[in-house]
């Protein structure tokens, strides 16, 4: 069979150009459908629900927007401004916890990320595993582990006891304990973005700076810091946003000693069954999350991560 | 015969390929040459079926293949990155097109590998990722040939190879074209490759074919200043007078301030530039050739057994270069900073339109 | 030069970096190690010097009906979540990385956004939404809810692998006569297989450990994480560390497996 005949039969077989519905059943459209449907139904829907509920007066949705109310906004925003009620304190507490967490995770992660990306060659896989494993363990299990460690007659007591120290201030149920918990839980979210941005710095860049007489301080300030900035931005946003929503840490380690937005929202939905009030506070969290998420996703270059192969 | 009619590709407002007509005979080695961004890769991708033209037709032996899917076209493209399937062995890569089009495998893999000068004993069962650049290129070629295409399309597949290897593979490609009688269409920005291998050249600039012909024709009579400069290092003089006389032109240019008669093909626009190649130009203390200008020697660069003499006219920024054998240059006794004549024989002058 | 020896570069100071990372790793392992130590300890007041080893709590955990039911429920959620999120995430990753289509970047943005959401926000919104649209609460709503968070993570992992494939691969396959089925079966799927396997393992482990979303959507059904949470906040029993450790053992095995697969691939085929 000549090539031309082969071509003719092939052209005949593929038939008239497929259009309309058939085209939608081919990639990429068919590949997009499941994710789009899922997110539309169970992600966009619920987030819209939070916004809509924040304008309701009861625990069900009234269809006519004319009967909607901004009473909960008046209560929450007014409370923050006038200082009445708990909202001002809750906001200050939450931001304080999140900001402290962000700063602490940054301070702890940065040298570790540098070391992992540029200094550690042997046993690197082992170190990476030790750092990754906690990420894949339930938050409440890890927090529970801390409780076992810190609690009276717990692991820490027993270790400290070996050195003959019997009396020391209990670490449980303090504000600092919550921060220990959030710093612990969100540390990997700071460490890995910085680690990835450090990996992308070429050895030659550092060597060139050293050749050109840069002191270690100059090397850090003029080369390492600017080049790892994307990682710092992503990590900081990540940790700040996620720790805003931290509830288990406050509940278990703080023992109800401190109220944060997350625990307050939980309280509004659970104990006081006031969905509109809870939703109004959730809307604030939602806004911060969406903005940060978009900033993070626009900063991340998946292709670059793929090329680094780590 | 492959023929395109008014073939056009637009990206939004940008016209990448502008109503291109090409005609390539069966068995020809055709090269589409042009600088990066000239639309040559877009043109090739339209021929391969990877990109739908905005307008126009592509016909193969009279059959319209404009809308045929790549998998239904008797064309095969050798990619610049070779695009070997990294999870397959060399053999599996080569068998892939045969299985797709139901061809008998038999010992074709061995035959094809030998055709591209690889030893099947050594290479057939290697993983594609274990090969060197030159070997990958050869396997990509064998894989495309295994498809038994009517037309082999090559998108600068030699670009990332080193000089010696590239030279050798260029020769082998030309031999293979002859041996198989298959049409080859090669896209490149490198003139050196184009001149060496092709039967026919298409020069592309900004999406337009500005000249078609055999390598010698184009080298001898470039259509535009752009082609003349693209074809090789050359000095260009802007003409300030051109009068037709019996199929030739009497031309004049300020720098050499002489009138000379140069043959010029009929039916083209009035010449606007006189071009003379570096290696047709010499420097000397006396004016011994037909044409010349007084220059100051700015720099002398040794390039193997020739020297490049860079010169300027006083009060002028245009640089002129003569390339001449080292011995001939030594004999003149000229040194950097001297005043000399930059000169050439009238017959070496090439006229080009704007 | 004195700056050299002081600098980040000094070879002799290498151990400091190892020491520091070891400290960070230890910090991250403290609660998990505490958990495991506690799960084997037989006694009321904990003591390292006088450690009393027992397997009793594991025995008790495995023989308790309510714990077994919680494990079954968790599996009943995790297995479908793994299968479905792998399919959904892989499909979305292939579409995003290997095709051009209008609003491609916006699609990526929205599809990956749930990864960055505090889970309490996702859980809460879903809980209200589930009551509004009549989805209700139980194992099936939990599956759908977890998919929203986990499918994007699978998409992320598979995208990283898929972006590493030569962009001309599909065209080369088409060019050599492959139809869509052949293209996927012989070329694309084998090339992304490693990423899909890692993605699936991560999906399982994340679902296996999920607390927030399940706590909002599972209703009367208790899973292993909600069971632990309940026992932590009201009525601690010494079985809890054993149950939590069991979850942890499964996770660690799978994650280590995934990482080893990933690294072995990097070592052999480049």
UniProtKB/TrEMBL annotation, chain A:
Pfam families associated with the record: BPD_transp_1
Single GO BP term: transmembrane transport
Segments traversing the membrane: 29-55, 90-113, 125-141, 177-196, 223-245, 281-300
Membrane topology: Multi-pass membrane protein
Subcellular location: Cell membrane
Chief location bin: membrane
Keywords: Cell membrane, Membrane, Transmembrane, Transmembrane helix, Transport
Residue ranges of every copy of the ABC transmembrane type-1 domain listed in the record: 91-298
Gene3D superfamilies to which the protein is assigned, alphabetical: MetI-like
A GO term from the CC aspect: plasma membrane
Family, similarity comment: Belongs to the binding-protein-dependent transport system permease family. CysTW subfamily.
Name of the protein: Spermidine/putrescine ABC transporter permease
Source taxonomy: Archaea, Methanobacteriati, Methanobacteriota, Stenosarchaea group, Halobacteria
TrEMBL record, chain B:
Keywords assigned by UniProt, alphabetized: ATP-binding, Molybdenum, Nucleotide-binding, Transport
Entry's localization field: Cell membrane
Residue ranges of domain ABC transporter in the record: 2-231
Gene3D superfamilies in the record: P-loop containing nucleotide triphosphate hydrolases
CC per GO annotation: plasma membrane
Keyword Iron-sulfur listed: no
Pfam families: ABC_tran
Reactions mediated catalytically: tungstate(in) + ATP + H2O = tungstate(out) + ADP + phosphate + H(+)
Keyword ATP-binding included in the entry's annotation: yes
Membrane topology listed for this record: Peripheral membrane protein
Superkingdom field: Archaea
The EC number(s) this enzyme carries: 7.3.2.6
An example molecular function term from Gene Ontology annotations: ATP hydrolysis activity
Role, per record: Part of the ABC transporter complex WtpABC involved in molybdate/tungstate import. Responsible for energy coupling to the transport system.
Family statement drawn from the similarity comment of this UniProt entry: Belongs to the ABC transporter superfamily. Sulfate/tungstate importer (TC 3.A.1.6) family.
PANTHER family in alphabetical order: AMINO ACID ABC TRANSPORTER, ATP-BINDING PROTEIN-RELATED, SPERMIDINE/PUTRESCINE IMPORT ATP-BINDING PROTEIN POTA
Quaternary assembly: The complex is composed of two ATP-binding proteins (WtpC), two transmembrane proteins (WtpB) and a solute-binding protein (WtpA).
Protein name: Molybdate/tungstate import ATP-binding protein WtpC
Organism annotation: Halobellus salinus
UniProtKB/TrEMBL annotation, chain C:
InterPro entries: Bact_Polyamine_Transport, MetI-like, MetI-like_sf
Membrane-topology annotation of the record: Multi-pass membrane protein
GO cellular component: plasma membrane
Family: Belongs to the binding-protein-dependent transport system permease family. CysTW subfamily.
Keywords: Cell membrane, Membrane, Transmembrane, Transmembrane helix, Transport
Subcellular location as annotated: Cell membrane
Transmembrane stretches, start-end: 15-41, 77-97, 109-131, 143-166, 187-208, 239-261
Domain ABC transmembrane type-1: 71-260
Biological process annotations from GO: transmembrane transport
Protein's UniProt keywords contain Oxidoreductase: no
Protein name: Spermidine/putrescine ABC transporter permease
Gene3D superfamilies named among the record's database cross-references: MetI-like
Coiled coil residues, start to end: none
Primary subcellular site in the record, as a coarse category: membrane
Originating organism: Halobellus salinus
CDD domains: TM_PBP2
């Amino acid at each position: 069979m000549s090539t031309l005949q082969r071509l003719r039969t092939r052209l005949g077989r593929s038939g008239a150009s497929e259009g309309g519905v058939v085209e939608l059943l081919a990639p990429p459209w068919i590949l997009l459908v499941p994710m789009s449907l899922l997110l539309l139904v169970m992600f966009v829907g619920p987030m819209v629900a939070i916004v809509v509920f924040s304008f309701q007066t009861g625990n069900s949705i009234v269809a006519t927007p004319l009967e909607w109310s901004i009473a909960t906004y008046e209560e929450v925003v007014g409370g923050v401004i006038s200082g009445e009620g708990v909202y001002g304190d809750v906001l200050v507490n939450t931001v304080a916890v999140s900001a402290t967490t962000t700063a602490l995770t940054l301070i702890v992660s940065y040298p570790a990320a540098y070391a992992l990306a540029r200094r550690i060659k042997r046993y690197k896989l082992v170190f990476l595993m030790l750092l990754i494993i906690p990420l894949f363990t339930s938050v409440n299990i890890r927090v529970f582990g801390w409780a076992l460690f810190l609690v009276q007659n717990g692991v820490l007591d027993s270790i400290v006891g070996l050195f003959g120290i019997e009396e020391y201030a209990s670490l449980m149920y303090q504000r600092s304990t919550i921060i220990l918990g959030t710093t612990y839980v969100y540390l990997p979210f700071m460490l890995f973005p910085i680690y990835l941005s450090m990996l992308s710095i070429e050895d030659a860049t550092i060597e060139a700076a050293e050749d050109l007489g840069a002191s270690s301080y100059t090397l850090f300030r003029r080369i390492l810091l600017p080049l790892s900035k994307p990682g710092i931005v992503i990590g900081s946003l990540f940790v700040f946003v996620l720790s805003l929503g931290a509830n288990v840490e406050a509940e278990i380690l703080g023992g109800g000693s401190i109220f944060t937005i997350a625990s307050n929202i939980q309280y509004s939905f659970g104990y006081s069954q006031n969905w509109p009030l809870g939703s109004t506070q959730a809307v604030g969290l939602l806004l911060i999350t969406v903005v940060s998420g978009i900033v993070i996703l626009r900063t991340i270059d998946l292709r670059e991560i793929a090329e680094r192969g780590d | 015969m492959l023929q395109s009619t008014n073939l056009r590709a637009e990206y939004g407002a940008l016209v990448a390929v502008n109503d291109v007509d090409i005609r390539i005979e069966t068995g020809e080695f055709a090269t589409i040459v042009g600088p990066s961004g000239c639309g040559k890769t877009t043109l090739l991708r339209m021929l391969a079926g990877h990109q739908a033209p905005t307008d126009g037709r592509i016909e193969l032996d009279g059959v319209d293949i404009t809308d045929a899917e790549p998998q239904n076209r008797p064309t095969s493209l050798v990619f610049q990155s070779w695009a070997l399937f990294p999870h397959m062995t060399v053999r599996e890569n080569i068998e892939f097109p045969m299985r797709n089009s139901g061809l008998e495998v038999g010992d074709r893999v061995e035959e094809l590998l030998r055709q591209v000068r690889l030893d099947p004993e050594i290479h057939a069962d290697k993983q594609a990722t274990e090969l060197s650049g030159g070997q990958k290129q050869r396997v990509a070629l064998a894989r495309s040939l295994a498809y038994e295409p009517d037309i082999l399309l090559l998108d600068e597949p030699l670009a990332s190879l080193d000089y010696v290897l590239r030279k050798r593979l260029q020769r082998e490609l030309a031999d293979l074209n002859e041996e198989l009688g298959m049409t080859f269409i090669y896209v490149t920005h490198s003139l050196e490759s184009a001149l060496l291998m092709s039967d026919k050249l298409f020069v592309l600039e900004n999406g337009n074919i500005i000249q078609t012909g055999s390598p010698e024709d184009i080298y001898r009579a470039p259509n535009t200043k752009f082609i003349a400069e693209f074809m090789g290092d050359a000095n260009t003089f802007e003409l300030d007078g051109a009068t037709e006389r019996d199929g030739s032109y009497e031309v004049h240019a300020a720098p050499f301030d002489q009138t000379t008669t140069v043959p010029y093909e009929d039916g083209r626009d009035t010449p606007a530039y006189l071009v003379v190649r570096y290696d047709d130009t010499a420097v000397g203390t006396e004016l011994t050739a037909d044409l010349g200008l007084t220059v100051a020697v700015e720099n002398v660069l040794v390039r193997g057994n020739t020297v490049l003499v860079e010169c300027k006219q006083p009060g002028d920024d245009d640089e002129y270069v003569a390339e001449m054998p080292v011995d001939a240059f030594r004999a003149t006794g000229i040194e950097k900073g001297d005043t000399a004549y930059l000169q050439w024989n009238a017959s070496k002058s090439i006229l080009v339109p704007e | 030069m004195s700056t050299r020896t002081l600098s980040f570069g000094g070879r002799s100071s290498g151990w400091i970096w190892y020491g520091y990372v070891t400290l960070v790793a230890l910090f991250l392992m403290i609660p998990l190690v505490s958990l495991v130590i506690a799960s084997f300890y037989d006694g009321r007041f904990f003591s390292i010097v006088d450690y009393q080893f027992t397997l009793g709590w594991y025995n008790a955990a495995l023989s308790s009906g309510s714990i077994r039911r919680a494990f079954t429920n968790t599996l009943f959620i995790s297995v479908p979540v793994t299968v479905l999120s792998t399919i959904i995430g892989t499909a979305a990753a292939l579409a995003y990385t290997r095709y051009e289509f209008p609003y491609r970047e916006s699609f990526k943005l929205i599809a990956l956004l749930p990864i960055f959401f505090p889970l309490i926000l996702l859980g809460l919104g879903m809980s209200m939404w589930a009551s509004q649209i009549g989805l209700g609460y139980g194992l099936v709503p939990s599956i759908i809810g977890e998919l929203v968070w986990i499918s994007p993570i699978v998409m992320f992992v598979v995208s990283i692998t898929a972006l590493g494939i030569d962009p001309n691969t599909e065209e080369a396959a088409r060019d050599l006569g492959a139809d869509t089925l052949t293209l996927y079966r012989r070329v694309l799927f084998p090339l992304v297989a490693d990423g899909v396997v890692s993605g699936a393992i991560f999906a399982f482990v994340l679902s296996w450990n999920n607390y927030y979303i399940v706590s909002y959507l599972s209703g009367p059904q208790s899973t292993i994480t909600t069971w632990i949470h309940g026992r932590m906040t009201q009525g601690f029993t010494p079985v809890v560390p054993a149950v939590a450790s069991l979850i942890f053992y499964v996770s660690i095995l799978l994650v280590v497996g995934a990482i080893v697969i990933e690294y072995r691939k990097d070592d052999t085929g480049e």
